[in-house]
Amino acid sequence: MHILLVIEPSGGGSGRHVVDLAQGLIEGGHDVSLIYSPVRAEPRFEAEVAALPLQHLERLPMRRAVGPWDIGALIALRRLIARLGPFDIVHGHSAKAGALARLAAPASSARIYTPHALTTLNPVEVGATPYGLIETLLARLVSEAVIAVSDEEASHAAHRGFPVERLHTIPNGLTAYDSLDRTAARRFMGLPDEAWVVGFVGRLIPQKDPVRFAQALSLAHARDPRILGVMIGQGPLFDEAREIGGHAVHMLGALDARPLMPGFDLFAMTSRYEGFSYAMVEAAAAALPLLTSEVGGVSTLARAGARIDRLPVSASPRAWADAVTAAFQRRTPPSISPALVERFSAARMTADTVAVYHLAHARRWAARG
Fold first, then answer.
1. Do residues 323 and 303 make contact, with C-beta atoms less than 8 angstroms apart?
2. In sequence order, what are the beta bridge partners of 112?
3. Residue 129: pLDDT above 70?
4. What angle do CA 261, 265, 266 make, to 5 degrees?
């Protein structure tokens, strides 16, 4: 198949997904092209896509915010698709690229959308917004398939009025990577062997609520100085989290967290909402116990054998500190479920996505008569 992937937030979990999906599709014999926005592109993402044997790789500026500039982006994207195509599949990732790609796709292409966490999942922004209405209209009118990354996201989409027959759930999958042992990971992070380490991995943005993590670890550290936090990630809340965390939290910035997870004793995710966090899956695959807010993907991981303690999305920093302290007192040893590793593999994610592509392509051609 001739497949075009389009993404706006070129990095983070959605960027990881696109890189792994593109690699898997290419290895499966498909011709893959990629259009991405350089506006929020992370250097790691740009390096990884540049190394892929893509048919075409194009940069097209797209802004996250909605505005009149989107008209120009839509026209430019339509021209790019016409020049690079034809494509059997046009697959948009994230809200902005998902909307523009589906609107720009020609009649011959099946239109696929992966939100990577619908914005209406955000409890702070009420779901009955113009954005929610637009998402539903696009799902109904210009989509052959919508791929949710967790059961929770799919259920939310169905509740919002997305056509159930076009909804599919495909969790994020992991590729193999080299990992450090516990001692080497601790040495790299500058942490003493006797510390009990709580890890946070993600962009330092309001969605992930890193400030709440820093507050909780500061409280837990005050109760027992052996409890330390590590934050891996970058973003606009970096300085605030660093100030609040103080000596209790080690800020490592933007790094590949996967090799360092053996140095954690507990993985904590304070997110307000998620589609299905890559970091959460990686932590479970690294045999870590998890402490998370009740967000997308948590129930799916728990059913696969991950050890997860959950807190309400609205839980206070003190409630998080209490949960961290209780986990410290239990000291759960590392344990992994083989079924979890198989369930959340990039190979399975790619195969399931290709199956959706075939269904969507057949639906598109049936609609054209």
1. no
2. 91, 145
3. no
4. 90
